[in-house]
């Protein structure tokens, strides 16, 4: 009897799978996004680990309070974190079938992303104006400016890509061409971008 039940369960699972949805009830787009985010997380993790290994192995390290306006960076961080809230509200709205509200929440998220990107560009301009370059800086620790530009630059590229992604998603939702899962997948990406910034902010600016 147990064997027969197990066989029926496997058959039902196979019929449900059918190449369209995974046995874990995760759609193909969401599964691919998770795989991408896992690989991307390892890239950022390797960079941050490299930063800490270099920093701990260095005799000196520049005082960030003398170089960077931490209040400005804190405002950037708050804006990006708040954008996670509007993104979550967009997912909640699309699940309820409220497409108009979904578009508005996506637009708010895009706006926050643009503000963050603009502030980061201003921060880079200030940093470059202080004499920082990829190959060196006035503070005598070339690895500091190199890691700053590479890590924050890669994250900034992710933010810009996310803005384009959300813009396209908002257009699809407005036209009725996107499902709730599509918005959820976009939410996964944007949430990842926000989470990574928390680690970058802590490693480069605070600790």
UniProtKB/TrEMBL annotation:
UniProt GO MF annotations: cytochrome-c oxidase activity
**Which UniProt keyword terms apply here?**
Cell membrane, Membrane, Transmembrane, Transmembrane helix
Q: Which InterPro entries match?
A: Cyt_c/ubiquinol_Oxase_su3 (IPR024791), Cyt_c_oxidase-like_su3 (IPR000298), Cyt_c_oxidase_su3-like_sf (IPR035973), Cyt_c_oxidase_su3_a-hlx (IPR013833)
Q: Which residues cross the membrane?
A: 31-52, 72-94, 103-121, 141-167, 188-206
Q: What is its main location?
A: membrane
Q: Name one GO cellular component term.
A: plasma membrane
Membrane-protein topology: Multi-pass membrane protein
Q: Which residues form the Heme-copper oxidase subunit III family profile domain?
A: 30-207
Q: Where in the cell is it found?
A: Cell membrane
Could you give a single Gene Ontology term from the biological process aspect?
A: aerobic electron transport chain
SUPFAM superfamilies found in the cross-reference section: Cytochrome c oxidase subunit III-like
Pfam (any one) = COX3
Of which family is this protein a member? Belongs to the cytochrome c oxidase subunit 3 family.
What's the name of the protein? Cytochrome oxidase subunit III
| Biological source species | Candidatus Segetimicrobium genomatis
Recall the taxonomic lineage recorded for the source organism. Bacteria, Bacillati, Candidatus Sysuimicrobiota, Candidatus Sysuimicrobiia, Candidatus Sysuimicrobiales
């Amino acid at each position: 009897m147990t064997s027969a039940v197990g066989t029926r369960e496997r058959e039902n699972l196979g019929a449900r799978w059918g190449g369209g949805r995974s046995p874990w009830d995760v759609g193909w787009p969401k599964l691919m996004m998770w795989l991408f985010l896992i690989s991307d997380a390892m890239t950022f993790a390797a960079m941050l680990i490299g930063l800490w290994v270099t920093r701990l192995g260095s005799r000196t390290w520049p005082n960030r309070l003398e170089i960077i306006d931490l209040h400005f960076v804190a405002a950037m961080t708050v804006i990006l974190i708040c954008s996670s809230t509007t993104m979550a509200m967009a997912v909640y709205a699309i699940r309820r079938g409220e497409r108009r509200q979904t578009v508005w929440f996506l637009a708010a998220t895009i706006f926050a992303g643009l503000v963050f990107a603009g502030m980061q560009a201003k921060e880079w301009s200030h940093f470059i104006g202080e004499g920082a370059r990829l190959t060196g800086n006035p503070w005598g620790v070339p690895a500091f400016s190199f890691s700053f530009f590479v890590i924050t630059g890669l994250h900034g590229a992710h933010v810009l890509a996310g803005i384009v992604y959300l813009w396209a998603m908002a257009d699809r939702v407005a036209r009725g061409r996107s499902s709730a899962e599509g918005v959820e997948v976009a939410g996964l990406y944007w949430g990842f971008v926000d989470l990574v910034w928390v680690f970058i902010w802590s490693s480069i600016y605070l600790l």
